[in-house]
Amino acid sequence: MAAKQPPPLMKKHSQTDLVSRLKTRKILGVGGEDDDGEVHRSKISQVLGNEIKFAVREPLGLRVWQLVSAIMFSGVAIMALAFPDQLFDAIFEEESVSSKTPIRLYGGALLSIALILWNALYTAEKAIIRWSLLAEACYFAVQFLVTTVSLAESSRIATGAVLLLVSRALFILISIYYYYQVGRRPKKV
Q: Where are the transmembrane segments (predicted)?
């Protein structure tokens, strides 16, 4: 007795057939709007429900601080790029700097940080917000240390530099505060 050969496997065309794919998604209940007007991309999102409850609870004033930081970094960057002499004179109360290149490079670095801060302002990702706050706090800490060493070496205390040191210390504290607040686990209700 000869064994009967099975029929050749037929390839299903449902992946390429748009109508068939839409029928399958409708049967699964995926892709359509629910009663709340929410469009589900998968059954998992339907089972889990609305993802708003999983969103980051932002501390009060976080977005304002991010906006102020982005504006501040952008403003100082543009001033360092366009008017390096005036920026140096405003901080250290000296007539002129020998080379404008380091101040312009400083402005370019600040502009790069400002772009990161502007993008972090529009995201809800917890990790991105925390990294931008940490980068900001590190920048302020380095600037605080460099300014302190520069003042100690020159043995001349300028009012602008002292004001800069006080403001940077305050900015470090604010950035670190928000960094830890965003990283906190929400309390169980």
A: 64-83, 103-121, 133-151, 157-180
